[in-house]
Amino acid sequence: MSEPRNIYAADPHAAFAAHESELRQAIDRVLRSGHYILGPEVEAFEREWASWLGVSDAVAVANGTEALELALRVLGVGPGDTVATVANTVSATAAAIQQTGASIAWVDVDDDTMTMSPESLAKVLSEATQPIKVVMPVHLYGRPADMPAIITLAARHGAKVIEDCAQAHGAVLAGRKVGCWGDVAAFSFYPTKNLGALGDGGAVVTHDGELTARLRRLRQYGWRQRYVSEEPGRNSRLDELQAAVLRVKLRHLDAENTRRGKLAEHYLTMLRGQPLQLPLADGGGVVSAWHQFAVRLPDRAVVQERLAQVGIHCGVLYPVPLHKQPAYVQDVSLPRCERACADVLCLPVHPALTTADVDRVASELIRCLHV
Q: How far is residue 188 CA from its own chain's centroid?
């Protein structure tokens, strides 16, 4: 009898194989065109992505980290400014802020959602020694942060809002997709994302035409006129191949997000009543993109190792909160964030999985919990 196949937390090759014929046609189209940087494929993807999200404009850039950095820069963030964000996220969130020269004010998270806590944000905004220029919530694991509360608090203190949407392509809050709420929003198209390229890619989206025009300058040396820099910019251009790939994958994103949701529902049914904390189900105007299925449990390392021994490979997003990492360390108390980083385990939930795969993961997890 053959060994059960390995189940991985993410499977970019399966995402390619699912649409291989369409992707190869799109790639061949670009190769034949002779136009490889900021051409018709990028322009078409920007229109299609903006339309799908429900925003006015999208500006495609080289990667998600630079999308965050350019979003900050277009709102005027620089040395001496402060940006409020959470610490249970990937280093890119902090790196983008640091690249602008701004400092970080850390905000604790909600225990149930593990996204930015409005209560903690209110405290940080009120107690800041200088005004906070931007609030940057992270839509974590596919679940939207509490944008109505966050926007209200930010406006009360004169701060702008940037949404970090890297894990939430298609997540919905109160009938609006994430990316539509803040002044600006940033997306990553890293291959493991819900909408993933075959390399790096990102986008900044906004409803403000003036911000869009400046973002287009900033992503290419600050040029308004070719070879003439109106302001300091950078090289952050999405290439035509990645744009063509993303256009193909965007056509399938709704169906694949629906598939993720069905797998998540099955996990919730299978794991209900077990000695662990499950993610919140969709409802109350929230539709998660289910980028991750994040459970919380004691003895995470032991459970993760036991699952790996039977071919089930889970992720830990993220094991060390940013405020405790050497590059960004601050002496600040974020107890809910720290607990989340200590006990979260992300079960495989990508659309290449079958219901039988979820049955297997859930059954093995239950067995580990009762050893």
A: 6
